[in-house]
TrEMBL record:
<feature type="site" description="Important for activity">
    <location>
        <position position="94"/>
    </location>
</feature>
<feature type="domain" description="Tetrapyrrole biosynthesis glutamyl-tRNA reductase dimerisation">
    <location>
        <begin position="311"/>
        <end position="406"/>
    </location>
</feature>
<dbReference type="InterPro" id="IPR036453">
    <property type="entry name" value="GluRdtase_dimer_dom_sf"/>
</dbReference>
<dbReference type="InterPro" id="IPR018214">
    <property type="entry name" value="GluRdtase_CS"/>
</dbReference>
<dbReference type="InterPro" id="IPR000343">
    <property type="entry name" value="4pyrrol_synth_GluRdtase"/>
</dbReference>
<protein>
    <recommendedName>
        <fullName>Glutamyl-tRNA reductase</fullName>
        <ecNumber>1.2.1.70</ecNumber>
    </recommendedName>
</protein>
<dbReference type="InterPro" id="IPR006151">
    <property type="entry name" value="Shikm_DH/Glu-tRNA_Rdtase"/>
</dbReference>
<dbReference type="InterPro" id="IPR036343">
    <property type="entry name" value="GluRdtase_N_sf"/>
</dbReference>
<dbReference type="InterPro" id="IPR036291">
    <property type="entry name" value="NAD(P)-bd_dom_sf"/>
</dbReference>
<dbReference type="GO" id="GO:0006782">
    <property type="term" value="P:protoporphyrinogen IX biosynthetic process"/>
</dbReference>
<feature type="domain" description="Quinate/shikimate 5-dehydrogenase/glutamyl-tRNA reductase">
    <location>
        <begin position="173"/>
        <end position="296"/>
    </location>
</feature>
<dbReference type="InterPro" id="IPR015895">
    <property type="entry name" value="4pyrrol_synth_GluRdtase_N"/>
</dbReference>
<feature type="domain" description="Glutamyl-tRNA reductase N-terminal">
    <location>
        <begin position="10"/>
        <end position="151"/>
    </location>
</feature>
<keyword id="KW-0560">Oxidoreductase</keyword>
<dbReference type="Pfam" id="PF05201">
    <property type="entry name" value="GlutR_N"/>
</dbReference>
<comment type="subunit">
    <text>Homodimer.</text>
</comment>
<comment type="similarity">
    <text>Belongs to the glutamyl-tRNA reductase family.</text>
</comment>
């Protein structure tokens, strides 16, 4: 039987805080965070998504209160305004918006979809994502794929790397310029391609592992030189543009190295920062970070307004489907538990009746068939009502049904998620029930 707990989430993103807030909320070891969350009392599943402009964590628990307690420390070092807590429905909607590119700094960016897939794979490998979060994240991936195949939301500038190149191109002539790209990961490769597309004459790619820098070199059609990360301080003195996007915990571009570099434009795409903030105080050096790309990304949003509206409609429709799916699963767990209780009672009573009657096998089969039919017919109407109640989040009605058919049902092993859902009702019981003829008065 599928677990039907509720999702609680916490997020710190570019839209709620600064790059420093995101850095403060992030950890370099998502797998370790997943393990810690999964070991927390009441947590059934966990999922963490961390990129250069977001730090998000989600858990599945029996109720939202338990989920908030489990996530109390995640993102706690960010400012209060930047840290946003999310309940079940808001968490689902946000995941869909993230994967579709609606919540990206660059509207419709393609990179985030792969990051969502990678984060799910990590959670699956650690063993913290199963029924609920797998359904939610896979639905988000599906929405992201629909957004990019059915709309033009990812036309044009589709990555932070290309947004950074656009920012630099707006400030200085790139034709024939020399650029240094620090970091040979996906972001570095995208940035290098974007700079090459805008006509830089020469590229230097620095990376801790030179072989990875050589891989980027092989991807480009402009003269390119791979160098080790240790050579950055020397190289910056002979370039016009520096674009840095490593995963280092430490600064990799020192302000002192830029002091005598002349007129240099620097874009720091890393989180935490790659470039010494003191570099911004040097008169000949212009430094941009993720927060400074807003004007480029806002122009992108304006150009894609119609496509974004189409993606919003996809998200709304898919969210409604997902919520309905989860509600049906919640109702089905309660219904299955009710049928299990009724089957136990039927089996007990049939066994008692047959022990008092002298029946042959054929006659005994008739009695058992009659008992099956009675259970099926008696539970048919309340089954429909329970599904309707779940669709309307009417858990007090579900509680009434359980108490009606078996007052001791909870003691016999009610599923934790069901007990938690019932606890969400005002007093744990219902004064009225839409179950028609099945009332205490009858």
């Amino acid at each position: 039987m599928k677990d039907t707990g509720v999702i609680t989430g916490v997020r710190v993103t570019h839209s709620t805080g600064s790059v420093d807030d995101v850095a403060a909320a992030s950890t370099r070891e998502p797998a370790a965070v997943l393990g810690t969350l999964a070991a927390t009392d009441g947590v059934e599943e966990a999922f963490v998504l961390q990129t250069c402009n977001r730090a998000e964590a989600y858990v599945v628990t029996g109720d939202v209160g338990t989920g908030k307690a489990a996530l109390a420390e995640y993102g706690a070092d960010a400012s209060d305004e930047a840290r946003i807590e999310m309940g079940h429905e808001e968490s689902l909607e946000h995941l869909l918006r993230v994967a579709s590119g609606l919540d990206s700094l660059v509207l419709g960016e393609d990179q985030v979809l792969g990051q969502v897939r990678d984060a799910l794979e990590t959670a699956q490998q650690v063993g913290t994502a199963s029924d609920v979060l797998e359904d939610a994240v896979l639905k988000a991936v599906h929405v992201g794929e629909r957004a990019r195949t059915e709309t033009d939301v990812n036309e044009g500038v589709v990555s932070l790397g290309s947004a950074a190149a656009e920012r630099v191109a707006a400030e200085r002539e790139l034709e024939g310029a020399t650029a240094l790209v620090v970091g040979a990961g996906e972001m570095g490769l995208l940035a290098a391609r974007a700079l090459a597309d805008r006509g830089v004459g020469r590229l230097v790619v620095a990376n801790r592992t030179v072989a990875n820098a050589e891989h980027v070199v092989d991807e480009l059609d402009v003269p390119t030189e791979p160098v080790p990360l240790s050579a950055v301080d020397t190289v910056v003195s002979r370039v016009d543009v520096v674009l840095s996007a490593t995963s280092s915990d430490d600064l990799v571009v020192d302000a002192s190295a830029l002091a005598d570099a002349g007129d240099v434009t620097v874009v720091d795409l890393a989180q935490p920062r790659d470039v010494d903030p003191a570099a911004g105080d040097i008169e000949s050096v212009t430094v941009y970070d993720l927060d400074a790309l807003e004007d480029v990304t806002e122009e992108t949003r304006e150009n894609r307004r119609e496509a974004a509206a189409a993606v919003e409609r996809i998200v709304d429709a898919e969210l409604a489907n997902l919520l309905e799916q989860f509600k049906r699963q919640r109702a089905d767990e309660v219904i299955a538990a009710m049928y299990e209780s009724a089957e136990r009672m039927k089996a007990r009573e049939v066994e008692t009746a047959l022990s008092k009657l002298d029946l042959d096998d054929e006659e005994a089969a008739v009695v058992e068939s009659m008992a099956d039919a009675l259970v099926s017919q008696l539970l048919s109407a309340p089954t429909k009502s329970l599904r309707d109640a779940a669709a309307e989040d009417d858990w007090s009605t579900i509680n009434t049904a359980l108490q009606l058919f078996d007052p001791d049902f909870e003691a016999e092993g009610m599923p934790p998620a069901v007990a938690a859902m019932l606890a969400e009702s005002d007093d744990g019981t219902a004064s009225e029930s839409p179950l028609g003829a099945f009332t205490d008065d009858d």
